[in-house]
Specification:
β4 and β5 (about 110-115) form a beta hairpin. This protein starts with 8 loop residues before the first helix and ends in an 8-residue tail after the last strand. It has an 8-stranded mixed beta sheet, with helices on one face. An 8-stranded mixed beta sheet has the order 14-13-10-11-12-15-9-16, with helices on both faces. It has 2 domains: about 10-240, 3-Layer(aba) Sandwich (Rossmann fold); about 255-440, 2-Layer Sandwich (Nucleotidyltransferase, domain 5). It is an alpha/beta fold. It is built from 15 helices and 16 strands. α2 packs across α3 (about 65-80), α10 packs across α11 (about 335-350) and α13 packs across α15 (about 405-415).
Length: about 450
């Protein structure tokens, strides 16, 4: 499958892994590399003809984010099979009566079919299933519904197409923790071999590079890398294969302060993000904040769990009784309608009285979080120095909107959206300084 170019080090490592797939030593392979590293050329264009040459009667299925891109890879693979040199090596070529770009056969009945993610592939059975970049943009990576839909398609449509002992290859740049690769690895990581090569090497680099050493420096110039680093999220996701930068994406670590003691006068408010799943999927989370006379937010209490509704209703009642919030916010919609009667009845039974406000579900999650993002950017949000729940919630904030879980962010977004109903207490006449804060320049403490 000579391209006329001498493969560089990372491409040789990739072909070694692909050879393992061809030999059956690797059944499931994921490849994470920066854009422009030729991962699609070797994996989606050169490898299928090689696999077909070794297995002339096999069927291959090539998937990408659109049918147009999948057919482009398919056309290039078909053209290789049609060359005289290919016939000399493998003894087969392209069938004269089946040469369409997206669906073609070789001269002995082996076949290749191309489709976009979510496309109709029913009736196809395959020995090699390739998925190349299922997400085409940052916008898609932030679309929770789309990512869930892609995973459902993979489980319910793609997997049933695989023959026994079929090989799978997924090629991707990691836009989000819960992209298709992330969801698959969360379910069955032990079944996959992962080749991940960031632009700048990290410890234990597969190529043996020193930390910080660049991938393919003859191709990726200083200007290209410096330009890529201007967008923190793109750099970490597309180039470093790590969709979670240490300093945050939507929220910055330096946005948050800490407190040692609470002000003497605060108004408290609560909010919940409810999940309908027990022991899986999303979490139900409750949060309580206190707002002082400066309008500063102090995170007071938090609860998180994948539990049945009777458990998290009791937890919400406990927090209401403890903190006596003025208002408790939730998101309106089907879940609110389903739980409201049970929640109100239990609140009344336990004398956990609180005004409930159901805010409409609007736009996407980043848009819903804008108000809270503004409060954070003004340096008005403070964590307790020590709490069991702080690390998890801060982790969600730093990963948002690329993280797998963001239910805690949804809680804080509801509080931000409820700002018009949230009132700071009047300042005391002598303005005592009750709050002792860790200096912001020291950063957030784990």
């Amino acid at each position: 499958m000579d391209t006329g170019f001498k493969p560089v080090k990372h491409q040789r490592l990739l072909t070694q892994h692909l050879q393992g797939v061809a030999e059956g030593d690797i059944q499931n392979l994921m490849v994470f590399m920066p854009p422009g590293s030729a991962k699609s050329t070797y994996t989606s264009v050169l490898f299928p003809p090689y696999f077909m040459g070794r297995n002339p009667h096999s069927a291959s299925l090539g998937i990408s984010n659109t049918s147009e891109l999948a057919e482009r890879f398919s056309r290039r693979a078909r053209n290789l099979v049609a060359t005289p040199n290919y016939r000399k090596v493998f003894g087969i070529g392209v069938a004269q009566d089946s040469q369409a770009a997206g669906s073609w056969e070789n001269s002995v009945g082996g076949e290749f079919f191309a489709s976009g993610v979510g496309g109709a592939i029913a009736g196809r059975r395959t020995d090699l299933g390739l998925i190349d970049d299922p997400l085409k943009s940052r916008e898609e990576a932030d679309n929770e519904r789309l990512k869930s839909k892609q995973f459902d398609w993979y489980v319910n449509d793609f997997l049933p197409r695989l023959k026994p002992q079929a090989r799978q290859i997924i090629i991707q740049t990691r836009w989000a923790e819960d992209d298709l690769s992330g969801l698959i690895l969360a379910r069955e990581a032990s079944k996959w071999t992962v080749l991940s090569l960031p632009m700048e090497a990290k410890p234990h680099d597969p190529l043996g590079r020193a930390v910080g050493e660049r991938l393919w420096p003859e191709w990726f110039t200083d200007d290209m890398v410096n330009t890529a680093k201007l967008d923190v999220r793109s750099w970490n996701a597309l180039y470093q294969q790590d969709p979670v930068p240490d300093d945050g994406i939507y929220f910055q670590k330096t946005d948050f302060g800490e407190y040692q003691r609470l002000p003497g006068i605060m108004h408290t408010y609560g909010a919940s993000d409810y999940a309908t799943t027990d022991g899986g999927g999303d979490y139900t989370e409750h949060g309580v904040i206190g707002i002082d006379y400066n309008g500063d937010w102090h995170l007071l209490d938090w609860w998180r769990g994948q539990k049945s509704s009777n458990v998290w209703i009791e937890s919400q009642c406990d927090m209401i009784l403890t903190h006596k919030p003025l208002v408790w916010f939730g998101e309106g919609g089907p879940i609110a309608k389903a739980i409201q009667p049970f929640l109100k009845r239990r609140m009344e039974e336990r004398h956990a009285y609180c005004r409930l406000e159901w805010l409409p579900s609007i736009a996407d999650k980043p848009t819903r979080a804008r108000s809270f993002q503004g409060v954070c950017a003004m340096g008005k949000v403070f964590f307790p120095i020590k709490s069991a729940w702080k690390a998890d919630l801060m982790g969600q904030l730093m990963k948002f909107p690329a993280g797998k879980y963001d239910d805690g962010v949804d809680v804080l977004s509801l509080l931000g959206r409820g700002l018009e109903l949230v009132k700071a207490p009047d300042a005391p006449s002598d303005l005592p300084l009750h709050t002792q804060r860790v200096p912001r320049e020291q950063g957030w403490m784990a």
